[in-house]
Amino acid sequence: MISPDHVRLMARYNAWQNQNLYGAALTLDEAARRLDRGAFFKSIHGTLCHILWADQIWMSRLASSPKPAVPQSESAGMIEEWPLLQNERVAFDDFITSWADTLAADALRGPLRWYSGAMKAEVSIPLWVCITHMFNHQTHHRGQAHALLTEAGARPHDTDLFMMPEAMNTPA
Q1: What are the residues whose beta carbons fall under 8 Å from the beta carbon of 81, sequence distance 6 or more?
Q2: Looking at residue 160, what is its pLDDT?
Q3: I need a surface site. Which of 13, 68, 104, 154 has the fewest CB within 10 A?
Q4: CA 88, CA 133: separation in Å to the nearest integer?
Q5: What pLDDT is recorded for position 158?
Q6: Rounded distance, CA 121 to CA 153, Å?
Q7: pLDDT tens profile 63-107
Q8: Spatial CA neighbour of 100 closest among 2, 10, 18
Q9: pTM of structure
Q10: Per-residue three-class SS string for the chain
């Protein structure tokens, strides 16, 4: 099982890597960010929108925040304007980090219950598994975004967790 310290570390890693990818995306013009590059969510913009959408749906379950305004099938176009997408990403990373800062160890052991539209069923899974999935999902799609950015000529920075400045100061 994971610990609250692990959740806090992953929340900060998530924010650090989003800054990395969005910074690299800023070196491209709008057309390059919107170009269909054959990825599942087609473009850099669409992939970054989907990551935010997924974070919002998971946090609606984990922290009772509002659900995204669109269904998963429309997640790639959830926010059309690039500056608004950037601002929403930063604000939501702050929300995830603040939530992680208040997470208690005993909460991780309990179940999370919700109706899964994907499974068309009520689901009950240990909270720590759901949190692990949320961070794993972010990493999976950020890897896709990193590849799309690199293909477009942008140069994201390192993604290694141990290179995150805060990780170097994390207690053992």
Answers
A1: none
A2: 87
A3: 104
A4: 21
A5: 87
A6: 43
A7: 999 999 999 999 999 999 999 999 999 999 999 999 999 999 999
A8: 10
A9: 0.94
A10: CCCHHHHHHHHHHHHHHHHHHHHHHCCCCHHHHHCCCCECCECHHHHHHHHHHHHHHHHHHHHCCCCCCCCHHHHHHCCCCHHHHHHHHHHHHHHHHHHHHHCCHHHHHCEEEEEECCCCEEEEEEHHHHHHHHHHHHHHHHHHHHHHHHHCCCCCCCCCHHHCHHHHHCCC
Q: Is the Cβ–Cβ distance between 90 and 23 less than 8 Å?
A: no
Q: What are phi and psi of 168, to 5 degrees?
A: -70, -20
Confidence of residue 117 (pLDDT cuts 50, 70, 90): confident
Phi, psi of 114 (to 5 degrees): -165, 165
- What tokens appear for 119 in the block? 């499974």
Q: Is the dihedral of CA 136, 139, 142, 147 positive or negative?
A: negative
C-alpha 112/C-alpha 164 separation (Å) is 30
